[in-house]
Specification:
alpha+beta; 8-stranded antiparallel β-sheet
């Protein structure tokens, strides 16, 4: 009977391993089908804004159609879509001469009605041979609508297009139809023939009908094209981004390398520390990676550089659920439980902390998705997807693997580790020192903001996203010194752009230089690129440019504050509901504010660039930090049920001590992934990874040294006579 049971367990284990291998293989195959953002695939992205705040929906739809047709001329994968009431986004991947595309897209389309060219044959009969002079143009068209015409009995309905001209246009068209009765008049859009209806009668009154064997789709397309020439919408470029294909390839290669190396280190760490459970979690993590790749392809998520960072980061965070479970298993074994009971109780006791921690991180991802845009939204999608998949693999796949190993005879306590009881450290005793240390860093940050404000006019080193202007990243053939940049590069930039005060920034460890100027139009950007290629022989495909208007940058500042505030409030409400104690929620949120302010202090003091990834970085820190805090609070809540509030200080000290190993190990695994991103990633990834390292350390510190003691102070000063539930 025992052999039969082992046989079933072996089959289950082999099935899980084969399933993992299969999913990893499918994920690898699906990688080529994953939609890549422009920062990975290269190309151009541009956002236009209509001059009217609330333009006519029909005009917006027509403009989207016009730009889609133009964009498709450059790439069949081009996407044009409306954002809000008066903005249109265009993404064209894979184009090489992106600046020329930007310039071309900005030109209005032309609609022309052209007269037929007639020639007499040998019998003196006029013959139609083509189209010639323009009779009237789109500015004289008022509207073009599709009308349904009921078919005769037994025949299908057909559609016709009703065109209305202006008063002047109606008179011109009447004369044209009188002159060319019986011949076609060509309708051209951007010199492309759209339709050529034959004049069947002299048209008076400024209205005509274009008939033919139109189905609805063809009629609507033709009507929309005619309307385009009559559009009164004026579009202004408010943001654009140009990325060379070679840089995209480098970004993918660097990010993949970081992910693979980080993953291997995490697997080795987990097996070394947790033994058989670590092996089970490593297999589950491999399945998680395969599933993640398949989901990205299936849901058609557009993968961007921050999105790649979200995946790599979520691998580090996926370990957290396993660490919580395995720590519990070690504790149960250490308290004398059998391995079987330890596994069962470990999963049971870890469940609430895993759910609460992941839900709060999902809140941060959700706020990022709904408030953020572009790459920030892509980061939120991959982070949220990663959190959900990590919960599934940890709670179900790791459990199944662990039981399989156990049932196969790997039931010795040594295979699972034993966590011996540690003497509680008195965190409450040193809390005031920790408060002062945190306050000193935060105050230093505010002082740095003040100094920055007085010297530069801004509290932070705002990047393009928050200031507006044009940022051009150039990869030179050699590592230029600051003196060479000042004496050789800046004069070239000034001459090409007319900007007398361009700013430059070297990207440490690379040949890349970031050039910031006032906003440049497409022709100016192209001129700058040509000047850099001519003067320094740089590869034009390794030049990227981003242009953002001042109005958009102000919106991004507002969105950043809004996102952090909304996420914090939602987390406060969730913790309040789950822990049924406002003091838990208050101390958790205070710790979140601590982490945000400490990270902001480093931004100010070290003058890190504050760009679009700043929002994603801050909310990732908030979500990560709250996860660690909830694990500690969950343990405090558990001990209060058994020990009561008589020795509140002892409860907190022992709870933090019991979860200290988890706090350290989870922070280490996440840091491994982020450090790999920083060391191996491209400059935009490094810009995201460095402050994230600071935030992870600050979050681990605040969870251990701030939240518990702060909850103690709130409870003893404001809740002495209240029963803590």
């Amino acid at each position: 009977m025992e052999e039969k049971s082992k046989g079933k367990s072996l089959l289950k284990l082999l099935a899980l391993i084969v399933a993992t291998a299969g999913l990893c293989f499918l994920g690898y195959k699906e990688m080529s089908a994953i939609k890549l953002g422009l920062d990975l695939d290269g190309g151009v992205s541009i956002t236009y804004q209509a001059s009217e705040e609330d333009p006519d929906p029909q005009d917006m739809a027509d403009t989207v159609y016009k730009l889609q047709k133009r964009a498709e001329g450059y790439s069949s994968e081009a996407e044009v879509y409306q954002e809000g009431a008066n903005r249109i986004n265009i993404d064209i991947p894979g184009v090489s001469d992106a600046d020329a595309v930007l310039e071309e897209l900005g030109k209005p389309g032309s609609l022309e009605f052209k007269a037929p060219v007639l020639e007499e044959d040998e019998n003196g009969v006029k013959q139609f041979v083509g189209f010639g002079d323009t009779v009237l143009d789109g500015s004289q068209v008022v509207s073009a609508q599709v009308y349904q015409r009921e078919g005769a009995p037994g025949e299908a309905d057909s559609y016709e297009i009703g065109v209305t001209f202006s008063e002047e246009g109606g008179k011109i068209f009447e004369e044209a139809t009188r002159e060319y009765l019986g011949y076609p008049i060509g309708i051209f859009y951007d010199d492309e023939l759209v339709s050529y209806p034959v004049v069947q009668s002299v048209i008076t009154g400024g209205q005509c009908s274009i008939t033919g064997n139109y189905d609805y789709e063809t009629a609507e397309t033709t009507a929309s094209t005619i309307r385009l020439g009559a559009l009164k919408l004026q579009l202004t470029e408010i943001r654009s981004n140009v990325v060379g294909a070679k840089l995209g390839e480098q970004a993918i290669s660097a990010s993949l390398k970081a992910g693979i190396i980080g993953f291997i280190i995490v697997v080795v760490f987990m097996i070394a520390v947790y033994r058989i459970p670590g092996l089970a979690s490593s297999i589950a993590l491999s399945m998680y990676v395969g599933l993640m790749l398949i989901m990205l392809s299936s849901f058609e998520v557009t993968l961007t550089l921050p999105g790649v960072a979200g995946i790599v980061l979520s691998i580090g965070m996926a370990v957290d659920a396993n660490v919580i479970i395995f720590t519990r298993i070690k504790e149960e074994i250490g308290s004398g439980a059998s391995v079987e009971n330890a596994i069962r109780e470990g999963f049971k006791k870890a469940l609430s902390a895993i759910i609460d921690g992941n839900v709060t991180t999902l809140i941060a991802a959700g706020v990022l998705y709904f408030i953020g845009s572009g790459t920030v939204k892509g980061f939120a999608q991959t982070l949220a997807l990663g959190i959900v998949l990590s919960m599934i693999t940890a709670l179900f796949v790791t459990r199944a693997l662990l039981w399989s190993f156990y049932e196969l005879g790997l039931d010795d306590r040594r295979f699972y580790g034993v966590k011996k009881a540690m003497k509680p450290f008195n965190f409450i005793k040193i809390r005031k020192i920790c408060y002062v240390l945190s306050a000193a860093v935060i105050i230093a940050g505010f002082a740095g903001m003040g100094l920055n404000k007085s010297s530069t006019g801004d509290m932070f080193n705002y990047g393009l996203d928050f200031k507006g202007g044009t940022s051009t990243n150039v990869t030179f053939n050699e590592d230029l010194s600051l003196e060479e940049i000042s004496s050789e590069v800046i004069p070239v930039v000034t001459e090409a752009t007319g900007d007398m005060a361009p700013q430059t920034q070297k990207v440490k460890g690379t040949n890349e230089v970031i050039i910031k100027t006032s906003s440049l139009d497409a022709s100016q950007r192209e001129k700058l690129n040509e000047a850099l290629v001519e003067a320094f022989g740089v590869d034009a495909e390794k030049i990227t440019a981003e242009n953002i208007s001042g109005s958009v940058s102000q919106e991004m500042k507002t969105d950043a504050v809004k996102a952090v505030v909304i996420a914090t409030v939602l987390m406060l409400i969730y913790i309040w509901i789950r822990f049924k104690n406002i003091r838990f929620a208050s101390s958790a949120v205070a710790a979140l504010c601590h982490d945000v302010l400490v990270t902001a202090a480093f931004y100010a003091l070290l003058k890190w660039s504050v760009g679009s990834t700043f929002i994603a970085c801050m909310l990732t820190i908030v979500g990560y930090s709250i996860n660690a805090t909830i694990v500690i609070f969950d343990r405090i809540r558990e001990k209060l049920k058994t020990e009561g509030t008589r020795d509140l200080e002892g409860v907190i000290n022992s709870s933090i001590t019991d979860t200290l190993t988890r706090s350290i190990n989870t922070s280490l695994t996440t840091l491994i992934m982020v450090i790999c991103l920083y060391v191996l990633g491209v400059s935009s990834i490094r810009e995201f990874a460095l402050p994230l390292i600071v935030g992870i350390v600050a979050g681990a510190y605040s969870s251990v040294f701030i939240t518990g003691p702060l909850w103690y102070d709130l409870s003893t000063k404001f809740g002495k006579n209240r029963k803590v539930k």
